[in-house]
Write a structure and sequence with these properties.
- This is Starch-binding associating with outer membrane.
- Keywords: Signal.
- It holds the Pfam family SusD-like_2.
- The chain has helices at about 5-15, 35-50, 55-65, 70-75, 85-105, 110-130, 155-175, 195-210, 215-225, 255-260, 270-280, 285, 380-395, 400-420, 430-445, 445-460, 465-475, 500-505, 510-520; strands at about 65-70, 135, 150, 240, 265-270, 290, 325, 375.
- It has about 525 residues and is mostly helical.
- It has a domain at about 35-170 and about 485-525: Serine Threonine Protein Phosphatase 5, Tetratricopeptide repeat (Alpha Horseshoe), CATH 1.25.40.
- The strands form four sheets. A two-stranded antiparallel ribbon has the order 1-5.
- Helix 3 (about 55-65) crosses helix 17 (about 465-475), helix 5 runs antiparallel to helix 6 (about 110-130) and helix 14 (about 400-420) packs parallel to helix 16.
- It is globular.
Length: about 525
């Protein structure tokens, strides 16, 4: 499998601050855990969660026309192996270990560990419901007694997860210090209590917005309470997984590993590149790296180097590995594109050639840091969620201000990240100018046009997290995507289950194949 090597390498080695620590056998005596074991087990759950996202993130980013990992997925055709590593890894590694942290931490009254584990478990299970709909839940981590856990309704799981988040907040309240766990035991927030509480409330905000079509009144009431805070409100407290720059062991972003350190797998999606280019978006230089200055669609030599594939293009790949546009500095930790773009016009005010003095080059294995990120829940996302809720649920929040703050937050985040990874800052005038341009469009738009602007800018700002853009599209139908060249099926409303699960879990019964096929056309419970 193209990503299995990555997953198992990452699961054991990627720790910030204490990357060289060796994991002990946490299963030596599960009925009598030690605090030391919890200090190793909790970060291993965070690492395995991110590591197991590779297939899921790449596939949904392909469906949502931000990149192209698989031509068949780009054409909306699914297989039981597409997300098998993600599904299997979540259950066999991440969730199994989270259950151990919660059980062991509760027994030893290590409430900080329990709180974080509950927040992480709620995040991951809610994401899995969003992706697959009905999934094993209550009996999923009872392998000794239940080898074939039944599917449970996604709506019922959501309710349990919302309660779990509240339980985690209560557990965190039992800790009187500012840190829930030692800094080396938490990859995300170094144990900082305030950051985890902001993440927990932001997760609730996301979930209530997700279900707003099911019960608008309930969502509006909950969101009105949540916007009083605390929420993720600064880029410094984003719920973001940070990869490393190490080579031995290799703990780099998986997209960097696949594209920069081995033979290439991806094309960049022509729709996404065109969206940024045609809208004078300065983030294009951060998101995409061009290996040539003139390559174009269909391997032409008279374009601008943004050579990718249109969504739904099922033709065989030519010999073009050295010509494809590729992942840039953000979010994969690749190269920053500081080469001139040959067909910019005077209308370009923010995506310009000012200071662009580099020459495109064929990517080498030593290029880029690989210290990329997966933006799971960010300050920008929270602001866009608040804007969407204000426009659709009348929460009393300021949709325009949140829209402005969301765009600003992402532009600043991308700029800061680029500088930290050998890139170039987005000029302050380009940030303020881009925001002002979008606000002028917002002010002139109808109600539907305002929501379109919010969701399109969230789509751009969420680059690197295909799961959330997939959620947003099914909930809103936005942004407007490009028609596929040669679709093989309809837009997938759920993802296919792991073929391993279908084969091994007898609770699917004789209808396993029919259940799998139905995934394509069956909406998730919140998709009305």
């Amino acid at each position: 499998m193209r990503n299995k090597k990555y997953m198992f390498l990452l699961a054991g080695v990627l720790l910030t601050g204490s990357a060289c620590k060796k994991f002990v056998d946490i299963n030596q005596d599960p009925n009598n855990p030690t605090t030391a074991q919890l200090t190793l087990l909790l970060p291993s759950t965070e690492i395995s969660m991110a590591g197991n996202m590779y297939q899921l993130n790449s596939g949904t980013s392909t469906i949502m026309q931000q990149t192209m990992w698989s031509t068949t997925i780009s054409r909306y055709q699914q297989q039981g192996t597409d997300y098998a590593n993600s599904w299997d890894g979540f259950y066999s590694q991440t969730l199994n270990d989270l259950e151990s942290v919660i059980t062991s931490g509760t027994a030893s009254q290590q409430w900080g560990y329990v709180a974080i584990a509950k927040f992480e478990k709620a995040y991951l299970y809610s994401l899995m419901v969003d992706m697959w709909g009905d999934i094993p839940y209550s009996q999923a981590e009872s392998g000794a007694t239940t080898t074939s856990p039944p599917l449970e309704k996604g709506a019922e799981i959501y309710e349990k997860l919302l309660l779990m988040i509240d339980d985690g907040i209560a557990d965190a309240g039992k800790i009187t210090t500012t840190t829930l766990v030692p800094s080396t035991s938490d990859v995300f927030y170094a144990g900082t209590k305030a950051s985890w509480l902001a993440m927990a409330n932001s997760l609730k905000l996301k979930m209530y917005n997700q279900i707003r079509l099911v019960d608008p009144a309930r969502s509006a009431t909950a969101i009105k309470t949540l916007i009083a805070g605390p929420l993720i409100s600064a880029n410094a407290t984003d719920f973001t997984f940070k990869f490393g720059s190490g080579q031995n062991p290799n703990n780099r972003h998986p997209w960097h590993r696949v594209e920069y350190q081995s033979s290439k797998t991806f094309y960049q999606n022509q729709f996404f590149m065109d969206l940024l280019f045609n809208n004078d978006d300065p983030r294009l230089r951060d998101f995409i790296y061009r290996q040539t200055a003139t390559a174009g669609l269909n391997n032409s030599t008279n374009s601008n180097g943004y050579y990718g594939r249109n969504p739904g293009d099922g033709t065989a790949a030519p010999a073009d590995l050295a010509r494809r546009a590729d992942f840039g500095v953000y979010p994969a930790g690749g190269l920053y594109d500081n080469a001139p773009i040959n067909n910019l016009t005077g209308a370009n005010l923010y995506l310009t050639n000012t200071g662009a003095t580099a020459t495109p080059k064929t990517i080498a294995v030593t290029d880029g840091t690989g210290a990329g990120i997966i933006p799971l829940i960010t300050n920008a996302m929270v602001k866009f969620i608040r804007a969407e809720a204000a426009l659709t649920l009348a929460t009393g929040d300021d949709a325009r201000a949140n829209f402005s703050d969301g765009v600003t937050a992402n532009l600043n985040s991308v700029s800061t990240f680029a500088v930290a990874n050998n890139g170039v800052a987005i000029p302050a005038a380009s940030i303020t100018g881009t925001v002002a341009k979008l606000l002028a469009q917002y002010d002139a738009a109808t109600a539907a046009g305002k929501l379109n602007l919010v969701m399109t800018q969230k789509y751009i700002a969420t680059y690197g997290n295909g799961m959330e853009t997939y959620n947003d599209y099914r909930r809103t139908g936005l942004p407007v995507l490009r028609d596929l060249l040669s679709p093989l099926s309809t837009f997938p409303l759920r993802l296919y289950y792991s073929q391993t699960e279908l084969s091994a879990n007898t609770s699917f019964g004789a209808n396993a194949s029919a259940i799998q096929v139905a995934q394509q056309i069956t909406p998730v419970f919140w998709d009305k």
